[in-house]
Amino acid sequence: MCRQAQLRPLSLATTGLAVLLFGACAGSMPQPVPDTSDAIAFNGARVIIGDGTVIESGTIVVENDRLVAVGEMDTVDIPAGASQVDLSGRTVMPAIVDTHVHLRTTTRDELVEDLQRKAYYGVAAVMSLGRGTGDLPFQMRNEVVTNAALYRTVGRGITAPEPGRTEVPYWISTTQEARAAVQELAPQSLELIKIWVDDRNGQFDKLSPDLYEAVIDEAHQRNLRVTAHVYSLEDAKGLLRSGLDAFAHGIRDTDVDDEVVRLFRERPDVVLAANLPSPGVASDLSWLSGTIPPDQLEQIQARFVENPGAQERFGIQARNLARLHAEGVTIALGTDGGDGWSPHTEMEDMVRAGMPPAEVLVAATRNSAALLELDDLGTLEAGKSADFIVLEANPIEDITNTRQILDVYLRGVAIERQALSDAWLGS
């Protein structure tokens, strides 16, 4: 009788792998190639590829930090000597990519902790949008940290002067300053440049069309893309006409109209990360008990109550997201925060807005990775990084099942979720 490996505490990087994983089953699988003992085959799970495809009973083969095969069981060649893990009844999906975060960057330890909290909840990579200052964000951009999500940053964002604001964007008042800001950012090899086009409820002057047009033009001359924090429908129209590449927020002041839909259709490459606001409904956050001490969790839970005002604000953006998605606009996931768990509430809110769970998962994986030009992430395909989540239940049936995480693998290694939890809870 063939013995299957235990799911926990699996790690492709540990020297004790032979103790944790037993020999492969011979005879029940196709002839294995090539001959190796470093591979692990995960068998029997429902495999959500990330592009809308689902394999109901699949095999994933991981070798070192790579996916070397993904397909239906009994059709995948398993390398000789590979260890095997039985995932029958479980679901595997790509790790999440969060395109809009604001993490702590005062010290390396703080930033690492924030990235580990993201990883704990199945996030493979994040993009910090517009508040990075100093050298640390750029140093961390190219660093691979154990048990942590990858970090990307746009550095400093660009906005009109906002006296009294404590963040650190470029303040621009002329087209010359707009172009100079892009020129200063360009050598950092950024995936995106961030602009704010919002008067923040009348507090500040808004970035004017001539200024954001100069930013977009200068960025495009340097093969850089631009994403915008936006509030109003009319500003969204102006940005689309000016060549904007992505929206870091949805339209929030009113329902979208036929004109903006037409503009989106004319720009099928534009990506929308809606960043939905609080839905204003009561929610049970007990699933966060593994990372947040009881007293802090109680304080957070107190904010998740019925709120008619929040429901109205959510309703505008939810309707806009639903219509733009129905019109074929590419949707990505962004949370606009630092909480590790927020992608899961964002996905629930996207479903609440009217997106099918399967398409929300595509938004949170493939589309988000593509927006950040992370070609190694987003889908479960041979040759890509082995970044995936093992779930107890099927999120296509209920999107909140993304919270039922059994294990998270980043770069082929099962992150140490229990050790992280113990550290955060003081266990």
The computed structural class is alpha/beta
Helix-strand sequence: HEEEEEEHEHEEEHEHEHEHEHHEHHEEEH
Question: Roughly how many Å apart are the termini?
Answer: 39 Å
How large a portion of the residues is in β-strands, by DSSP E?
Answer: 15-25%
Mean pLDDT: 90
**CATH fourth-tier homologous superfamily of the largest domain:** Metal-dependent hydrolases
Number of helices in the DSSP assignment: 12
Overall structural domain count: 2
Morphology call = globular
Structure description:
Helix 7 links the parallel strand 13 and strand 14. The protein contains twelve helices and 18 strands. It is globular and about 65 Å long. Helix 4 runs parallel beside helix 5 and helix 10 packs across helix 11. The longest helix is centred in the last third of the chain and has 19 residues. The chain starts with 16 loop residues before the first helix and ends with a helix. The strands form four sheets. Strands 1, 2, 3, 4, 5, 16, 17 and 18 form an eight-stranded mixed beta sheet that branches. The protein folds into two domains: 121 residues, Urease, subunit C, domain 1 (Roll), CATH 2.30.40.10; 276 residues, Metal-dependent hydrolases (TIM Barrel), CATH 3.20.20.140. It is of the alpha/beta class.
